[in-house]
Specification:
A 7-stranded parallel β-sheet has the order 4-3-2-1-5-6-7, with helices on both faces. The longest helix has 16 residues, at about 15-30. It starts with a strand and ends with a helix. It is of the alpha/beta class and about 180 residues long. It has 7 helices and 7 strands; from the N terminus they run E-H-E-H-E-E-H-E-H-E-H-H-E-H. Helix 1 packs parallel to helix 2 (about 40-55). It is globular and about 45 Å long.
């Protein structure tokens, strides 16, 4: 399975890097491919290292203004013209999506993927990996959107909140039919 992971390129502390590395190793040992932003920085590097060192493949999609930070030993690296093209390529090249911790760029990617799913533009499973309760507030907001009628379909049909990498991968494998 090709698993797109949206996440931060920032250097973060162990409460985020340790679970990210564990999830990456699950991807690699499972024979899956990581599809990610292609960066050789921060949490993106931690995850790419973990996947590659555990036997998985890497498909990176960087963007022209970040190309100097792109990983040089990925199995495939694509350089997009802009962020919009990058998001489209990440979705196109993947079978499933996981959103890990991140900033505004990660939140932008997550909401666009969910909006496209809401409108039937893709049916890929989407997981928010809620490491250290990072997405508790977002989950609460999504629940309010559902409760107050802002979502045209149940929240559970849009996204699965996983508290750890094992739960995230199990959901993806079950939902996608790909192993």
């Amino acid at each position: 399975m090709k698993i797109c992971v949206f996440l931060s390129a920032a250097d973060l502390d162990d409460r985020y890097t340790v679970p990210a590395r564990e999830f990456a190793e699950l991807i690699g040992r499972g024979g899956h491919t990581l599809v990610w932003g292609g960066s050789e920085s921060g949490l993106m590097k931690v995850v790419a290292d973990g996947v590659q060192e555990s036997g998985g493949k890497l498909i990176g999609v960087s963007v022209d203004f970040l190309a100097a930070k792109a990983r040089t030993n990925a199995d495939e690296m694509v350089i997009a013209r802009d962020l919009a093209e990058r998001k489209a390529l990440l979705l196109e090249k993947s079978d499933a999506i996981v959103v890990m911790v991140g900033g505004t760029g990660t939140l932008d990617e997550a909401t666009e993927i969910l909006e496209l799913k809401k409108h039937g533009k893709h049916t890929k499973p989407v997981v928010l990996l809620n490491t250290a309760g990072f997405y508790d507030g977002l989950r609460q907001q999504f629940q309010r959107m559902e409760d107050e009628g802002f979502l045209p379909l149940p929240l559970a049909d849009l996204v699965f909140f996983a508290k750890d990498g094992i739960g995230a991968l199990a959901y993806l494998e079950e939902s996608s039919g790909l192993r």
